[in-house]
């Protein structure tokens, strides 16, 4: 069982730094394997609670090195909810890597635990017969303080449903629950790690050097 770890988050920062420098990232320092995974970037300004800046991943198993390399950039630069992260934002960022495990089919839309399970929902939009789907990672509902019903309703809107949500529609949803391991690394911790393991802090084009 592979668990999310510091080296995976370091590799995501390495990948993003290499992108800004038009360079290649150093080799990954973790074991290869195939798992579903997500990369989440958050930004903290003036000591405030970090706010989402990009989150994209895959529910299909991917080789970890290629997967984290691809989704580190995709979540930072191509999350359609946000403008691309710029190099100057790096000092304010934290990266969370997630590896998804234990996929199970739920008996109904309430058959899961807030804070333990992530959700994948699939349902047919009654307004146009379109199949819709969306996912939330395990930490989302707990962070938002949602009940199970509120999480499901929010997820239906995330999937693109804009109509009225009825109890019968909730009961028609197919729910897959899963769990995850995750690791969060701030940019300052990343700089400290690189300085300790490679002898010098990372240099980034367009970002002033400093301890951050």
UniProtKB/TrEMBL annotation:
InterPro entries: AMMECR1, AMMECR1_domain. Residues 1-194 form the AMMECR1 domain. PANTHER family: AMME SYNDROME CANDIDATE GENE 1 PROTEIN (PTHR13016:SF0), AMMECR1 HOMOLOG (PTHR13016). This is AMMECR1 domain-containing protein. It comes from Populus tomentosa (Chinese white poplar). The lineage of its organism: Eukaryota, Viridiplantae, Streptophyta, Embryophyta, Tracheophyta.
